[in-house]
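Note to self: keep these together.
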Amino acid sequence: MEDTGTSLATMRAAAPLVHNITNYVAMNIAANVALAAGASPAMVHAREEVVEFAALAQALSVNIGTLDTPWAEAMEMAAQAMADAGRPWVLDPVGVGATQFRRDVCARLMAQRPTVIRGNASEILALAGLDGTGRGADSADPVTAAEASARDLAIRTGAVVAVSGPVDYVTDGTQGFRVENGNALMPRVTALGCSLNGLIAAFLVGQSALHATVAALVYFGLAGERAAQGANGPGSFQVAFLDALYTLSPQDMTAGARVSRA
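Structure:
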C-alpha cells in the first residue's frame, strides 16, 4: 500500500465539494466531519434540484438510513447524473436487508454504478444476495463473514467494497486490505459511521478508488484513536474527534496507519 498520508494531502489540496444525500440523523455530524477534514459538504436532497446540483459537485455520497420515496427518487437521479458525468459516488446501503423497499431502492442505485459501496457485514451480505443477521442498521455478522461476498460484489459491480467493523476490510475484487485503526467509542456516537461516507467521497476526487477508500478509513480510524485518549465518554469523544480530524497531518497518518494486505 502506498503512503496513505499523501492521499490526505491530496484531498485537502482539492477541498472538494461533496454532494450528500444522507439521513436526518447524520446531516449535522456528516457536514462537520467533512469540514474538519478539509472538504466542502452540501446537503441537497430535493428532486427539483439534485441533478442541477450534482453537475456542480465533484463527488456524491448516498445514505439510505431514513429512506422515503421522494428521497429515493432524488438519490437515483443524483447517482445517475454522477455516473453519466464519470464522477465518483459512494453508496451506504443502511439496513438493506431489513425491508423489501430498501432492497428495491438499492437494486436501482446499484444500476448506477457506485464507485464505492460501504456497509457493515450484514448489509454487504444482504446486498450480495445472502442472508445476514443484522438488526436494522446494526450488524450481527463479523467482518470476516462478509469478505468473500465483498470480493464477489466488487467483481460483479466494478465498485470498491468496504466492510466496516472493528477491523475494516476493503477490496476491489482482486486486491484486499484490512484497516485496524479505530476505537470502541466510535459506534457509541450516533451517525458517526454515516459521516464516513462523505469523507470517502472527498478522498475519491482525483485519486484511485481502492487507495482513496483505504486512506479515508485510516484517517477516520486514527482520528478516533486520538480522540479517545482524552475522552470521558461519547459526548466528549465527539468533540475531540472533530478536533482530531482537523489537526491530523499527512505525516501523522502515515506514521499511525495500520494497514495489511488480506
